[in-house]
Amino acid sequence: MGLLFVETLSGPKVFRCKFCKVDSASNDDVVSKDFHGRYGRAYLFKRVVNISLGPKEDRLLMTGFHTVNDVYCSSCQQMLGWRYEKAYDEGQKYKEGKFILEKARVTKIGW
Ligand SMILES: [Zn+2]
Question: What is the pTM of this model?
Answer without folding.
Answer: 0.92
